[in-house]
Task: structure prediction
Amino acid sequence: MSKTQSSAAHLDAIDLEIMRASLDGIVQEMQNSLFRTGFSTIVRESQDASCAIMNERGDVIAQHVVLPLHIGSFPACCEAVLRNYDDIAEGDAYLINHPYEGGSPHAPDMALITPVFVDGLLMGFCASIAHKSDIGGPVPGSCSGQARETFNEGLHLPAIRYQRGYQRNVEIERIIACNSRTPELVLGDIRGQLGSSRLGEERLIALILKFGKDNAQACFARLLELSHLRMRAAISQWVDGIYEAERFVDDDGIELNTPVRIHVIAEKKGDSITFDFTRSADQTRGPANIRPPLVNAAIAYCLIALVDPNIFVNSGLFKAFNVKLREGSVMNPRFPAPVNTYNPTVHATVEAVFAALTNIVPEKSRADGCGSRSIILGGRSTYTGKGYVQYEILGGGAGARASKDGTSGTSVNQSNAKIAPIEIVESEFPTRVERFELIRDSGGPGKFRGGLGIRRDYTNLADARFSIRSTKHVIAPNGAAGGSKGRTGDILINPGQSDEKRLPTRYADYPLKAGDHFQLDTPGGGGLGNPFERDPERVLKDVMEGYLSIAAAERDYGVIVSGESIDQQATRNLRQKRG
Amino acid sequence: MGHYRVTVDTGGTFSDFVYLNETTHEISVAKIPSTPDDPSKAILAGIEHLLTQGVKADEISYFCHGTTVGTNALLEGKGVRTGLLVTEGFRGIYEVQEQSRPHGPTIFDIMYDKPALLAPASLTGEVRERTAFDGEILIPLDEQHLRMELRRLAKRNIESIAVCLLFSFLAPSHEARVREIIEEEIPGCSISLSSEIVPQIREYYRLSTTVINAYLQPILSRYIANLDQRLNGVGVATPQKYIMQSNGGMSTFAATARKAVATVLSGPAGGITASTLACRTTGFQNLITFDMGGTSCDVAMIKDGQPSVSNRGKIEGRDIALPMIEINTVSAGGGTLARVDDFGTLEVGPHSAGAIPGPACYSRGGTQPTITDCNLVLGYLGEDNFLGGKMRLDRAKSNAALAANVAEPLNMDVASAAEGIVRIINVKMQEAIKAISTMRGHDLRDFMLLAFGGAGPLHAGQIAQELGMAGVIVPLHPGVYSAMGLVMSDVKHDYIRSRLSPLTKTPLEQINHIFAELMQQARAELADEQFRPEQIQIEAALDMRYSGQGYEITLPCKAPLEPRDIGELRDSFDQIHQQMFGHKAPDEPVEIVSYRVRGTGLVPPVQSPIFEKRGLALKDALREIRKARFNGQWVDTPVYQREGLDVGMSITGPAIIDQLDCTSVIFPGHHARVDDYRNLIITMTGA
Result:
């Protein structure tokens, strides 16, 4: 068997599997510790944080996937540590959140990295990335939709040594604290990250001692190689070809009438794929840019979804594909182009790659989904004078799939946040939620319907500064294979009042007054297949469940519903006439 | 006239019975084939089994039952037609659920769906009302509008209805009034109020728990009524009839019928309760319970004699926010499959051969090697003594399956492959144990591993050694251990109320007032169930967190509290936070989130029988000498029959101990001793 012959061929198959299962356990333990010990809403409720174990070069060898983008960020952050320090020692801990020096998606995603030594030899790293509630900058939450440079995006730390000999550098903590609107939360989360890393370090050392350094290194190498080989083997089964797709992001937050183009040519040949993004838009003035580690992670996300969601997720997957990016483009911007609103661009990248590749794997095709969005309200409590940041991440409708409807009210693609409980939000912040429901008729029509978007209405009870970073308020989620688009999202201040105002897709620092209302609609997913081929019984069921109006049943599906049943004759006539 | 306790744990294949004669303390056990269409048939058969031995029905003074009727109805989607009432404008709470997908591979799985709604949107009504976060009524209940909604739902023939209004945990008056109106508008409809089921902050989890209750309540209540009638019919008329709950306590028939959701995760609770008795008899207060069966392995922690309890759990993606014994399940059992993929990687699990075709050695058509095949090849299991000899295992088939699927592709011999596979599955179970112990700051050196289930005692010795644990306990009846737990349980009811406030700024009277109300409720309910005041135990606890933190820690406390207790609570919160999470923040304010009270109705304890030496000789228990493989070496290993072992006997490993439904392996360097309760206590050299 030629496939088993490799650099690590002498490694015992049983030892390998035992070490892999142990690494899974260690990284899971780190993850649980981080979620439990996080101080901020973002870590504890939204779980916007993840952990990894890396080898001595910074390749991720184990990750319990919480946030798929971090697979790209960890190696880039670790590389910055390796590049800047030649005296890395046991007991060190490094912090980095710089998207250009390292690989954070944006500056609030702060990485904490600790080296792991056995008998004086650097064997690897334990690390976590956790979103910080605020690291300064012009707006609460530090993510201004109108940032023009990274200098508008909060405090940036290159790789810095936060601990030496297991002792914290208090000066660094003081610098971070005085650059944050919520210093206790940020420092609390960093300490949680530190605890998680130290747990991982202790267990990883024990594992390496048990199997020996050589054996452990051979295991790490083989795990990377296996993911690489598995991915190539799957790709080699697909037919060769060149496939093209494009998607657009509404705008960059500055030039409001210019959609941002994401374009991909995927060339599949043999057991590898090259993704050429060079025809994508130039880098944007606003914060829609993404850095190359995120492009790699987005591609890996698609390939894992198409090949096998259960594949071992590690850096080895990256060797199965090539990426061409143009410097100065939205996918490889020059410093200091702003990057804080990266998610819409990543969603567009994932959807473009999916659209290109499902030409090869049609049984995995799906329509586009809602993307993701965050809203941030910041203010100062009238009782305590303390700053607060209310941060919520919302999904919407997922795209319809080749054999079933899209999911309603869900996170999609690389984003996966929990929704904030209303009773917690109202108990902690001066906000009242007035409505929380799915939006009727928002799912894109198709033989399989797109999922429904979410509506959440709020009343603001104290003056606050409001920011939104959303997507697909202008350009609707695409349908697939003859399916129609989903409904766009929207953000309205004081809807139905004389001072009603629609904000752009991304907007920073809108001054909300006490008593102002705002209404957030999130997009529905696209439909898949011809809606006139949808089983009329399913159309009726959607009407009965309140997911579809009687008018839309007729308009979009050619199904006439009268009372609680289908008018079969009228439906046949209408479908014949229009179909 | 004697007094008997009869307990039954209904499983998918067998209903396990334990009969305790309270006068003589004698225990006997039976396995009766289950009758899934009507589980009460098997229960009656088990009662008959006792009656045919000359016991009179009225001598049965205590009956306890572990049931999966609710669990199965939930898993199979066979609950009743259920409606839901939410605050107007808030249907999204149930439809969006948590919004996120489970971590791990699911994030990449574009075909993943959330669990389907148990109360669909078409059966959901909206209630015009609103309570604010501080309990203030912002919109009074619109009764006229509610009646219209109910009439609409009534037309759709709902049999049960769940009600979950925002902040009802704080101000339950709207839900209470809604109940009265439902009773008027839809007479006979089963009603579940979130403010009664689990008055706890975080609307989605409260709602989900309430909906599951509504979905199952009529089914469980019919089942219990039918069972009660049948039991009364054969003369088992004792009022002491109980059902096991997820929290490890029992509940009377009547109380269970009102809170069906509390039984859904009760499956493993009996085994854990039995384990707490093992703490009393063996003197070991810290245990990891290790229940390995055919497809999965359940582990749980018992510290200082008390099982570890969690306040929220999931079943098939559905959330239940009720106290339940914390159990970690991993796909590892006798039927777990091993395979080698195209890249020479050896995978053990998660797939299982199930009952059909089962392991290759069962000769039911299985060709893939399983853990049971490995244990047979390694000589731990014998061909002739499985299930007391009722079933023959075919070692040649195990050999062939391992050779073709693992040994040859990896270019190794069959025995090494079997040994390697067992090591891998052991690591997976060890990780599951670490997740509930060392991951929470506990030192496994202080814990014994209590092994039961069909396969637990085969693997326990190796796992305990790898984890550096103190040793292993194999109880006398490892195959019917859950039913054993039902003999010795107490009645336990949990009460909770959420009210967010800073610890040091909450008036003491307010804290004590809430506790007083909950305790009064607990006492009243237990008194209703015929417990006398001296049989009632009340425990209070506070869920607290650092202000703004997401996880609460449950701290036991006394009630009522005195002024100086607040400072002590604060200190112990910091201390426990440090112990559980590795850091503390003594300068951060601490908040009370919820008040908890547990009311326990003490059932007279069981006297565990102490056995006398029977003067048996070890050599008489010897069945055979068999070659078994340890650390790559084949060793002549004595095989003993468990029933022939006498109190006080010692056995030095390697040795194998067979009994009717279970085999224990004593590894080289391990010593087993039979204690006065005929438990096997296994310790390791140097431990």
